[in-house]
Amino acid sequence: MKLAILGSGFISRFYADALIGQRRKDEITTVYSRTLSNASKFADDYKVPHYTVNLKECVSRADVDAVVIGLSNDMHLDAVLACAEAGKHVLCTKPLGRNAKEAFEMLQAVEKAGVTGGYLEDLVYSPKSLKAVATIKNGAVGEVIWARSRETHPGPHSEWFWDKEKSGGGAIIDLGCHCVELCRNYIGKNIRPVEVMCWADTRFHPIDAEDNAVGLVRYENGAVGQFEVSWSFRGGMDLRDEVMGTEGTIWINNFLRTGFEMFTSGKGGDYIAEKAESNTGWLFPVGDEVNELGYNHMFTDMFDSIEANTQPKENFYDGYIVNAILDAAFVSAKSKKWEPVEIKDWRGITESKKEKQLTCYDDDYYLIKEEILPGGEKKYIVKNKKTGSIERR
Ligand SMILES: NC(=O)c1ccc[n+]([C@@H]2O[C@H](COP(=O)([O-])OP(=O)(O)OC[C@H]3O[C@@H](n4cnc5c(N)ncnc54)[C@H](O)[C@@H]3O)[C@@H](O)[C@H]2O)c1
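Structure tokens for the assembled complex are given below, as produced in the milestone run.
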């Protein structure tokens, strides 16, 4: 695959590290950036043969099969439209749009142009998330009742994130998009998200957008996805998930406390990990950041899908659903009520409400709880099917 990269900032560098860091048959042939100096520095660092400050020229080049978008949120729509017009496959970073309206326009544009629209939601592709989702699909945790995803750090690294007009929102749009999509993957992406209840506040920064939020997304089958996001968490980047199923539980720590701990007096002063706030004392580095954040598996899926003419696991439709959920979160944060998720074109299961599955103790009783007590005695708590009385056996 011959690739154009749009943007030469933070995420474009992570993407380039993933694209050329290991032996791959794919190559970056051109890079677009706003200034020639940034474009040429990026081209130099990653041995990219061509660079430009002209976005349309960049995506239209004959030596470009697919375009990777690493631009600020306000640029995603225009960039995607330019790729669709040029007939190029397009892979866009998160969030797809600043809102569902923009995301839907992007979805329609790629579908009309007949090109692939890949949604670069890396955390769904982290080795731990991939394993967790496969485990859930195998039935090991039973039915997922509740999934929780948390992304918190001390705040983003560029000015445009803090400007609501350019970003579309604060911690909800920036970090909540990851959490919502992780929960969708755990609960089942074909289950319709129905409504959202969200608390959000601007606690610590002189900005219009929220810097802290917690939200609950209720799905049609009764499952709940919970997102917790902050731009004021101290101590690094905390990426944790928790899945509760009827037959099992999953806890994932993707980043901050992964089992790799290190002490240094601070003489080296090297980079430790994304958003790490310190480089002295006890530290929590990340072994292979590009891989552990999911970038390698993500691009492999994207390029395999383009070659096979199939949809990548994360595509523009997913990006649109995430934006629709986040739109409802913003409304709920204001109204302080459950707010509906407005989806124009639902493509998942239409009737996913489930009958309650009750476990029978015998013909007359349901089993509520079974437990072995410290003395070895087995205790059953049961409910009479006719009278409803709760008893012990
Ligand atoms: N884990 C992830 O997937 C992840 C992590 C970080 C950022 N992102 C996303 O990547 C995108 C870029 O974020 P970043 O962290 O690289 O930011 P950044 O500020 O480091 O880089 C942004 C890039 O966009 C360019 N840009 C900004 N405004 C522009 C304009 N008006 N016209 C043309 N170019 C413009 C900048 O020059 C720069 O090249 C955002 O959508 C962000 O949400 C994703």
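The domain at 2-94 is CATH 3.40.50.720 (Rossmann fold). The pocket of nicotinamide-adenine-dinucleotide is lined by residues 7-12, 33-34, 70-73, 75, 93-94, 120, 122, 158, 160 (CB under 6 Å). Further analysis is deferred to the final report.
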